[in-house]
């Protein structure tokens, strides 16, 4: 099946007489991209008319959520001046209603006829509606008018009801979750109803979907999964009151948004007919689920009629993604200019952020390729799910899924179908190995899939843009985006784009900007010093002086971390709670089933029998799974959010304090038994470990910190695998710095030898404070030391020899931390307002989360139920459940990922 158009030679001849007329039906992103592509290639001999039924210039539908929360935001695509070209015309308020194929003209709803030589259909799609009673009372999420109406409705209802609005979104896919996140930002209570058992089931596997559900539920969302709505309920005045579910439950609702998908607007193809072909078979092939079938050149079955975007069906699919729509638009423009570009198929890569939760999926995310390998990391402490799919030799990248931490996506996405530079596990950054390995992208690797921009194009532009006067190099990110279009659509490639720009500039000897993010021009180091010197104490103060906009997921937690590093004020007070990551907001680590772990501090691994008894009693009372961690502490798993204050009350009363397992701060100081018991020990390792842990507890830093103290050279505490390691000698202590474990382990390096206690602590004070002040965000000490000019020698000069003259200042800063330290959980328990954070349901403070269920495993312990088991008899709706044949000491544990 191939459509036809005039040959390039005939087109050249015709252009000498009259411009060829192109009519575009539709004014969305695909239509705009086509007009832009024609404009870029030259409009000599062409006359392009774009007919859009909306009253606006073409706008970015990907960013509709911005318009939902800010009705004044401008989403206009490109420069409005483009439409000033004499050969390019945009007609707003003109909806095409019919095609006269024989007469080669289209008619609009206003009765205007537009003749064409080439017709490009870009009518997009409509929001799907629910065929249930009450659906006329619902909103949809598709156009600017739609989101403006939702915005106004929430504001009006909040004023009318005098409380938070219950905003129900039906649909747990991309649009549905964006809609729900928008209602949450508008102050409503977000509730999601999803027919699939897990969210975003088209893009995510079950493990990732369940992880996403737990994460957003922790942010105040309520998710009803695996059940469909059957009716939208209302009162006599037509005000929505709830949604009746297929299982008979009623979900309270004041407003309902339907975001269950889209359907192609292909009615022009269904009704198209000319006077000479009346009564003949349909002219266009339509897909079973709609959309006009196109060739790989984006031609329909009728010569001179093309289709692009969501209305086009290729390979049996119509997809509402920006990348394929842009590609189709470029292909048609290329072919009309005599080219032979072809459509390669749909790129289904997806990346978005929902209320601070990163989600990304690309390639063969479900591992459908024969003999594909799945390398999975499910973090039970932070609710993070990362999966990489490779060929069976673990070399070639086939796809991936990331939830909670999508940092590897930007570097992995361009490597799809290529051999990885390192073993796959090294890219699972959530495993604690630091950043993903540096990847040198080949020139032909597609860096920006939305606009089909290769890494080679970026390099060429940085070193000399052919579109600029004098082929000048491009040195600013904004200019690079403007010249290449990379990063101008969904924006997910911007981090990699920025990294490639900096790499090329560095090669050219150009100084590179170290801006923290697009909102803060200062680097983290500069920002830290600025906040310290000016004694700024709030996010608002920092942004007012040195930032723009409302901030982002980079600068918000970074500023919160810096503020916490410089004072010991309660981390969730004064508006700082909204800046924190999930675990910091709960003062606990979220687990894979939505419960939390409790980790009291056990300094140096030393604990009395009495305190061991307290932990045992608490675990028994709340039915918690207990495990001794690698850091010599006892971790208790399975606590619900509302149980955390109760559990910590018992622990604090017994003398325990927070172990800070949830924060970017000191975690543990591991020790051997030292000279107290061991016949080889030469120093009291336990006493030193306890002193160090009590000194640095609660110390907020760019990344987590771990320490180790070994009582002799046999190194039983593995101190050289820690950020700071202390190893006893006959003459004192050897101090090692900059080590870490994880996927890319690093041995700590010797900083000083045979130190007495006082000097040892003085050097550690200086080292930690220097690291905290100068490291980048989320940078481990090992990577920080490597990147310092001079490496360990520079560290020695600053810490030991005080070559910068700042030692006294660093020591004073640490002394301030030690003097002002207050246990966060003890502080929390004193304040009823702070305790209000610890509720499973904001609008039902006394209600427990009954979705958390456990089943016994083969060892007589308990674990979270799978989706299938939740419908079985063995389900336990309470955490405090034990099988009848299990011993009294039976514990509970979470299920292992089946694909790890």
What can you see in these coordinates?
The protein is of the alpha/beta class. Helices cover 28% and strands 19% of the residues. The protein has 25 helices and 38 strands. The protein has a 5-stranded parallel sheet with strand order 3-2-1-7-19. A hairpin with a 6-residue loop joins strand 24 (384-390) and strand 25 (397-403). The radius of gyration is 31 Å and the shape is globular. The model is unreliable at 1-9, 11-15, 273-278 and 872-900 (pLDDT under 50).
Question: What's the SSE blueprint?
Answer:
Blueprint: H1 8-15, E1 20-25, H2 29-41, E2 46-52, H3 64-69, E3 88-92, E4 96-100, E5 105-108, E6 113-115, E7 118-121, E8 125-127, E9 139-140, H4 144-161, E10 166-170, H5 174-185, E11 189-194, H6 206-218, E12 222-225, E13 229-234, E14 240-245, E15 250-252, E16 255-258, E17 262-264, H7 267-271, E18 292-293, E19 305-307, E20 312-313, H8 322-336, E21 350-354, E22 357-363, E23 373-379, E24 384-390, E25 397-403, H9 409-412, E26 446-448, E27 453-454, H10 455-463, H11 477-484, H12 494-507, H13 524-534, H14 539-546, H15 555-566, H16 582-586, E28 589-590, E29 596-598, H17 609-622, E30 625-628, E31 634-639, H18 644-653, E32 666-671, H19 685-696, E33 705-710, E34 724-729, E35 732-737, E36 749-755, H20 757-774, H21 781-787, H22 792-799, H23 807-820, H24 824-829, H25 832-835, E37 854-856, E38 862-864
Parallel strand pairs: 1-2, 1-7, 2-3, 7-19, 9-16, 10-11, 10-16, 11-12, 18-20, 32-33, 33-34
Antiparallel strand pairs: 4-5, 5-6, 8-17, 13-14, 14-15, 21-22, 22-25, 23-24, 24-25, 26-27, 28-29, 29-31, 30-31, 34-35, 35-36, 37-38
């Amino acid at each position: 099946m191939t459509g036809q158009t005039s040959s390039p030679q005939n087109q050249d001849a015709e252009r000498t007489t009259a411009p060829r007329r192109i009519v575009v039906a539709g004014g969305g992103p695909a239509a705009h991209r086509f007009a832009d592509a024609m404009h870029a290639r030259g409009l000599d001999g062409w006359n392009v008319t774009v007919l859009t039924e909306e009253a606006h210039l073409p706008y970015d539908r990907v960013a509709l959520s911005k318009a939902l929360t800010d009705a004044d935001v401008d989403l206009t695509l490109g420069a409005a001046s483009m439409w000033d070209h004499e050969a390019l015309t945009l007609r707003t308020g003109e909806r095409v209603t019919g095609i006269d194929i024989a007469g080669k003209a289209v008619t609009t709803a206003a009765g205007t006829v537009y003749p064409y030589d080439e017709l490009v259909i870009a009518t997009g799609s409509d929001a799907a509606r629910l065929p249930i009673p009450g659906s006329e009372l619902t909103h949809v999420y598709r156009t600017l008018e739609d989101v403006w109406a939702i915005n106004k409705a929430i504001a009006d209802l909040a004023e009318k009801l005098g409380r938070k609005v219950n905003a129900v979104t039906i649909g747990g896919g991309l649009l549905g979750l964006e809609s729900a996140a928008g209602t949450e930002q508008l102050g409503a209570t977000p509730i999601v109803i999803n027919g699939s058992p897990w969210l975003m089931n088209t893009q995510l596997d079950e493990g990732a979907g369940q992880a996403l559900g737990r994460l957003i539920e922790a942010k105040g969302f309520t998710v009803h999964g695996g059940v469909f709505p059957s009716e939208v309920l209302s009162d006599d005045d037509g005000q929505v009151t709830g949604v009746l579910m297929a299982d008979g439950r009623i979900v309270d609702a004041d407003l309902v948004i339907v975001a269950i998908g889209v359907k192609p607007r292909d009615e022009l193809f269904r009704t198209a007919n000319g006077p000479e072909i009346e009564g003949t078979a349909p002219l266009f092939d339509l897909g079973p689920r709609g959309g006009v079938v196109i060739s790989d050149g984006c031609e329909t079955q009728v010569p001179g009629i093309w289709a692009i975007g969501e209305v086009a069906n290729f390979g049996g699919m119509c997809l509402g993604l920006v990348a394929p729509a842009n590609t189709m638009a470029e292909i048609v423009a290329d072919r009309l200019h005599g080219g032979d570009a072809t459509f390669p198929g749909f790129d289904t890569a997806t990346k978005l952020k929902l209320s601070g939760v990163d989600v990304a999926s690309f390639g063969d995310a479900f591992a459908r390729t024969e003999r594909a390998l799945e390398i999975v990391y499910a973090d039970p402490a932070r609710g993070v799910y990362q999966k990489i799919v490779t060929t069976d030799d673990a070399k070639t990248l086939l796809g991936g899924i990331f939830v909670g931490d999508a940092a590897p996506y930007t570097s992995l996405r361009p490597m799809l179908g290529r051999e990885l530079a390192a073993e796959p596990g090294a890219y699972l950054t959530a495993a604690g190995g630091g950043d993903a390995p540096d990847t040198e992208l080949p020139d032909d690797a597609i860096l920006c899939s939305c606009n089909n921009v290769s890494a080679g194009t970026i390099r060429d532009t940085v070193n000399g843009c052919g579109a600029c006067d004098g082929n000048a190099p491009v040195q600013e990110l904004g200019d690079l985006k403007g010249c290449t279009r990379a990063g101008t659509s969904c924006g997910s490639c911007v981090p990699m784009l920025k990294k490639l720009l900096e790499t090329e500039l560095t090669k050219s000897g150009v100084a590179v900007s170290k801006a923290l993010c697009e909102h803060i021009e200062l680097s983290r180091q500069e920002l830290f010093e600025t906040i310290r010197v000016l004694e700024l104490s709030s996010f608002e103060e920092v942004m007012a002086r040195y930032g723009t906009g409302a901030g982002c997921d980079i600068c918000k937690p970074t500023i919160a971390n810096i503020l916490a590093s410089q004072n010991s004020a309660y981390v969730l007070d004064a508006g700082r709670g909204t800046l924190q990551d999930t675990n910091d907001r709960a003062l606990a680590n979220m687990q894979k089933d939505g419960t939390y772990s409790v980790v009291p501090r056990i300094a140096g691994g030393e604990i009395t029998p009495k305190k061991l008894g307290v932990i045992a009693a608490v675990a028994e009372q709340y039915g918690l799974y207990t495990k001794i961690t690698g850091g010599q502490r006892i971790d208790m798993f399975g606590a619900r959010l509302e149980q955390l204050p109760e559990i910590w009350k018992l622990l604090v009363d017994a003398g325990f304090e927070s172990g800070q397992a949830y924060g970017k701060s000191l975690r543990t100081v591991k020790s051997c038994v030292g000279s107290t018991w061991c016949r080889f020990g030469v120093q009291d390792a336990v006493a030193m470990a306890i002193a160090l842990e009590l000194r640095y507890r609660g110390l907020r830093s760019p990344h987590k910190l771990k320490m180790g103290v070994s009582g002799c050279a046999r190194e039983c505490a593995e101190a050289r695998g820690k950020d700071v390691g202390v190893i006893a000698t006959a003459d004192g202590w050897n101090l090692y710095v900059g080590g870490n474990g994880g996927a890319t382990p690093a041995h700590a390096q010797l900083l000083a030898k045979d130190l007495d206690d006082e000097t040892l602590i003085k050097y550690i004070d200086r080292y930690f404070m220097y690291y905290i002040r100068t490291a980048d965000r989320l940078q481990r000490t090992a990577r920080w030391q490597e990147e310092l000019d001079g490496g360990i020698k520079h560290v020695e000069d600053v810490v030991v020899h005080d070559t910068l003259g700042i030692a006294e200042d660093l020591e004073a800063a640490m002394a301030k931390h030690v003097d002002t330290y207050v246990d966060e959980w003890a502080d929390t328990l004193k304040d009823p307002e702070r305790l209000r954070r610890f509720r499973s349901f904001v609008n039902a403070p006394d209600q427990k989360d009954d979705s958390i269920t456990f089943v016994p495993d083969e060892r007589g312990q308990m674990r979270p139920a799978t989706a299938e088991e939740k419908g079985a008899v063995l389900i336990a709706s309470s955490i405090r459940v034990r099988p009848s044949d299990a011993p009294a000491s039976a514990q509970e544990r979470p299920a292992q990922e089946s694909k790890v």
